Amino acid sequence: MKLKKKKELMSWKETWNTNKRLLQLLYTQRPKMLGICILMDIWNALTPYVGIYLSALIIEELAGSRNPDTLLRLVLTTLFSAALIALAGAFLNRLQAVENAGFYYYSRKLLDDKLMDMDFCILDETETNSALTTILQNQGGGGWGMGRAFNLINDLISSLFSLFGGIALTVTLFTSRVPDSAGNMTFLNSPLFLLPLLAVMLAVIYLAPALSNKSDSYYAFNSGTHNLANRLFSHFGFLGYQNQLAADMRMYRQDIICEKYNSDKTSTFSSKGPFAGLARGPMGLYAAASAAVSGILTGVIYVFVCLKAWAGAFGIGMMTQYIGAITRFATGLSSLISVTGQIRINSTFLKQIFDFLDHPNIMYQGSLTIEKRNDRQYEIEFRDVSFRYPGSEQYALRHVNMKFRVGQRLAVVGPNGSGKTTFIKLLCRLYDPTEGTILLNGFDIRKYDYREYLSIFSVVFQDFALTDMPLGENVAAAGTYNRELAQSCLIKAGFESRLKELPKGMDTYLKKTLDEDGVDMSGGESQKIALARALYKDSPFIVLDEPTTALDPIAEAEIYSKFNEIIEDKTAIYISHRLSSCKFCDEILVFDKGGVVQQGSHEALVSDAAGKYHALWYAQAQYYAESNAAG
Q1: 3-state secondary structure labels for all residues of 279-297
Q2: CATH number for the domain including 547?
Q3: Three-state SS across 334-403?
Q4: Is residue 552 domain-shared with residue 504, that is, in the same domain?
Q5: How confident is the model over 400-416, as a mean pLDDT?
Q6: Burial class (CB in 10 A: 0-12, 13-18, 19+), 486
Q7: Winning range, highest mean pLDDT, from 160-169, 244-253, 470-479
């Protein structure tokens, strides 16, 4: 696998604007966290200089007059200052830890809120999922993104104040003169010596972090390869921990597949992989050069300070101060250069997050209020509706015309790929038609307030999802709910006997992820809970996508026998492959190749020998007859 050697960096202007936006976001939404972190950065940057300064005074006094009273005062001041700094630092550190603890979840919530606000048609696109996955992989794998940006901004502030403190304590190092009695050592006073020395020190200070950033950039610019390796490891490295795969793993020895990926020495992070090659090559060389340059800088600082002290420019106490202060100054400047380089590299990943958050919705949201009718007399009409998915040239639906009113029982049947699921997505306005119009009570559904329109539908999707939270909260889809209503909905959905067995009733957690007393539900039980959730919402339209596929025949027959009682006065739209379950419906839509090819009652459709429904019905009835004969 070949890795990239370099990548175009963002401009400094764009880098500044991207990070400024993060600061503005934090200032408006988490001002307390931002303020505490800035205060902590300043505190950590400046307080070390207090110890350096007081220690220098003590050493100077010991090397000079050694006055006991002066020494006592300096020692007590040093101890008191150290205690005060430690106490205040611990207090600020605690405040910072509390605020920072939720930052990861804050950054995730920004993404989650965007997903909830995003048009479903955009959310359903592969590009959207790929963008989100990339952001999360960059964050979890290389640590790039919003969290690193905030930490780097903190490091930048700390570096700046370290520089200010270092300058304050080291300026006299260059202004203090070697006495004329030092002879040849007076060359240390000459600007012709000091200016080149400063130039060399600044060059070395710049070079060390620049080399380090160069080394780190190989990881950043190859984040795609890094992310792919993490995905492979996350998948093949943990297959054996998934209970639902345990049987197949043993029967088909799928651990051998895992072994192929987990033991490959040439894989991304293995000893013969591309990153190992870079570590032995340019990455390692740049990192080693950075460390060597840092060592040279330390040596230059010590030699210069010692020479001036030896020549008599200042005493041993000031020597201690200058070495400590100039070392921290150099560290601060080096950190500043390193941090600015890291900020520029990370800004590419930060921009990906903002681009995702800025992705515009394309569906018209509407403004009309849906009339709250006590009689629930709503009428839906599809008027010459056609639809094709974004990026596809083929139509999933073509020229669909039909209407139905609240209170009807409508079945939607047809072969796989005939357009049934697309029909439901358009009905619920998860997508808008490519051509034609869908009407609610005579008005184009696009004119209604989008959230209000969604509220009139309760849907049990075939791939429905339940959370690991308590049963009652799953039914209500809320933390606070009407317990009696939730229980009534579970009973209507056929869950009564199982509910009586649960150790904590409505408060029983689903699965053991969050509670060791949680209960794992079977597929059929989960389907009943999903149906109860749809009933709890109490919308005039209820859509059921294969609602009994996981139920046993007895439970399925029980649901069908009470179907009218369960649905009450709602309109039920029922998608199914089992045509025997469509008998109770008032109307049946037969889809084939993206269009409605038949519409009518079960009796009328099954009697049409030339129709699609007749062929589907007797194809299934044949297997039921053979099964009964065999029994």
Answers
A1: HHCHHHHHHHHHHHHHHHH
A2: 3.40.50.300
A3: HHHHHHHHHHHHHHHHHHHHHHHHCCCCCCCCCCECCCCCCCCCCEEEEEEEEECCCCCCCCCEEEEEEE
A4: no
A5: 84
A6: buried
A7: 470-479
Q: Which domain holds residue 490?
A: 470-528
User: Encoding tokens for residue 180?
Assistant: 């004329």
Give dist(CA 495, CA 478) in Å, integer. Answer: 20
Are residues 436 and 574 both part of a single domain? Answer: yes
The model carries a pTM of 0.75
pLDDT greater than 90 at residue 24:
yes
Indicate if the pLDDT at residue 434 is higher than 90. yes
**604 belongs to a structural domain:** yes
Q: Judge if 447 and 549 occupy the same domain.
A: yes
Tens-digit pLDDT profile for residues 50-105: 888 888 888 877 877 788 888 889 889 989 998 998 998 899 888 888 888 888 88
Mean per-residue pLDDT for 555-575? 74
Count how many domains the chain has. 4
Q: Assess whether 164 and 294 both reside in one domain.
A: no
Which residues are CB-neighbours of 316 under 8 A, at least 6 positions away? 59, 60, 63, 309
In what helix (H) or strand (E) does residue 101 lie, and over which residues does it extend?
Answer: helix 68-101
Q: 67 with 184: CB under 8 angstroms?
A: no
> 294 and 160, same structural domain?
no
Single-letter residue type at 345: I
